[in-house]
Inverse folding.
């Protein structure tokens, strides 16, 4: 599996995920401004991965002589929804603000992410059964976490342990992370999958073709509400209607104890152009306006369980979320 | 507004909807085989429009000397879900099977469709309110009916009568009829709209941005279950959850009294290539498999009302559907 970036001699080399799978292009980010732009443009994306990219961005800022707070603000300003971005920067406040101190932290966070992903994957895979056809949304593999993957990590461990029959991958418009990235990662891992359009999830459920849903998260509120890539909430509503378990796989760093509930999560709106054009070709009339909401919120009541490295969380979420944060010694 | 086809000197000239809005290309179908292929390939699409195209296909078959039953089979074989295809052919069985007799019928069906569309639009528009932001799915305008449009017809009359604020158009993958056709028709009609991805409908509803939903139908069962373009059912489920009225606009010819319930409706599966490629560019890895289900079924319980030219149908649908068929003197 490919990593989303690597740090080399004062620069972050970012695999441009916007061009995958047709092209493997690496962007060299030698300034914190370039790292921020790679995050904003979604050359690197996925809540855990952008947290790690930001940690390396702080290293590069220190080398440039950019003040910590200025760099932090630049990085925080890129994408408002993912909790991991703020979390990584908070962690950096706890270490010496030198390039060496920050580099040590970034490497440590990367190791932690890999360990967390593995643990999430093991805990999640235990909930799957050999004949399961599992639907996932967007991309939550190594490209999205810089580790082993969250929801895709669960699928990888389940596949290795013969607890999975097939994955349903929805394409995840507008940027097609499902079709371009998840399908590609599953292909490389040899895991059987079939692609569907986002609008097909109801038809799949009606036909009884989905046994479980596993998705990632961009921010989890203290009450268990989950912000994730737009399209997640309709899947959760359909899953509840059809009695299909709906799981979320995410590291504890995705939980934001300062966000009480889903309504408090800032939801990013991106440029209309991502909707109006597909792969750089216009699909709508000249001048068409679009609303491009990047995330939606799935209420905790629709979530069967949340797989974290600190354990599997279930309702009542106020209590289980508080418990895992306490055990993690978080804030 | 553009018509989806016109009959001229023994040939059906079909506007190739797969190339809209970027190109206006007309295909000349001089044989019934070419008409069938235009329907199968979705150069012409929309349940009412393919019914009319089939009626003209029978005219062309008669001119070619192709036997009626052979032509009927060829046309019926193109797309299994739309009720209007079978309905048009049944109507043709009632007239003299000469090219003159069949041409007279085709022209009559076209007039009937336009009148039905107008009546549906008037009845439907009465249910809308001046501040309504109305979501529609796929394309149900003149291109889809050969008349005034069904759901889009409702929106047109509502707009003219100041009973509409804005339309939400979802793009309707895989073939993007919403982005390419509905947006284009609304643009030409001067009706304000915003485009969203199919996966965004949940986010819109969560934010309270949708006041009503109006969609078309490809087949309505005797119990009121509605088969329509895939993605309709998730919208209906979300609408019910958020207390948003969900309306279907369709001519009586879309009702199939011989289909007892939604489970009995044959659902077309189309080539995976429509999902794997967007506008002729691959979006998934080489060799990726996809399931391309063209329709889903919305249970009658989720439908607030069905607008037909014979009146507005409401629950209990067994009774209201039977009543409208009886009034229409249908089978």
């Amino acid at each position: 599996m490919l990593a989303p970036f690597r740090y080399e001699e004062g620069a972050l080399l970012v695999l441009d995920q916007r061009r995958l799978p047709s092209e493997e292009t690496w962007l060299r980010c030698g300034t914190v401004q370039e790292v921020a732009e790679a995050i904003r443009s979604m050359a690197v994306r996925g809540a855990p991965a952008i947290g790690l990219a930001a940690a390396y961005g702080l290293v590069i800022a220190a080398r440039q002589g950019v003040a910590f707070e200025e760099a932090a603000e630049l990085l925080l300003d890129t994408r408002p929804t993912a909790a991991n971005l703020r979390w990584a920067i908070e962690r950096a406040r706890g270490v010496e603000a030198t390039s060496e101190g920050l580099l040590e932290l970034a490497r440590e966070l990367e190791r932690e992410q890999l360990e967390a992903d593995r643990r999430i994957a093991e805990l999640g895979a235990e909930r799957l059964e050999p004949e399961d056809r599992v639907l996932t949304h967007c991309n939550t593999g190594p490209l999205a976490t810089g580790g082993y993957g969250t929801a895709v990590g669960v699928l990888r461990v389940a596949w290795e342990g013969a607890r999975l029959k097939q994955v349903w991958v929805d394409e995840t418009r507008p940027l097609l992370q499902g079709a371009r990235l998840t399908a590609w990662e599953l292909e490389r891992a040899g895991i059987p999958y079939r692609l569907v359009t986002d609008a097909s999830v109801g038809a799949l459920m009606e036909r009884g073709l989905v046994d479980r849903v596993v998705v990632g998260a961009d921010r989890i509120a203290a009450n268990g509400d989950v912000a994730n890539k737009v399209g997640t909430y309709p899947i959760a509503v359909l899953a509840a209607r059809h009695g299909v378990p709906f799981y979320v796989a995410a590291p504890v760093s995705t939980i934001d104890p300062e966000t009480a509930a889903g309504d408090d999560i800032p939801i990013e709106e991106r440029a209309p152009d991502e909707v109006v054009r597909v792969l750089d070709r216009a699909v709508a009339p000249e001048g068409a306006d679009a609303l491009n909401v990047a995330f939606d919120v799935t209420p905790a009541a629709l979530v069967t369980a949340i797989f974290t490295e600190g354990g599997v969380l279930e309702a009542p979420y106020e209590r289980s979320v508080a418990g895992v944060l306490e055990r993690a010694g978080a804030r």
Q: What stands out?
A: Chain A has twelve helices and 18 strands. The longest helix of chain A spans residues 99-125. Chain A touches chain B through 55 residues (CB under 8 Å). The two ends of chain A are 33 Å apart (CA to CA).
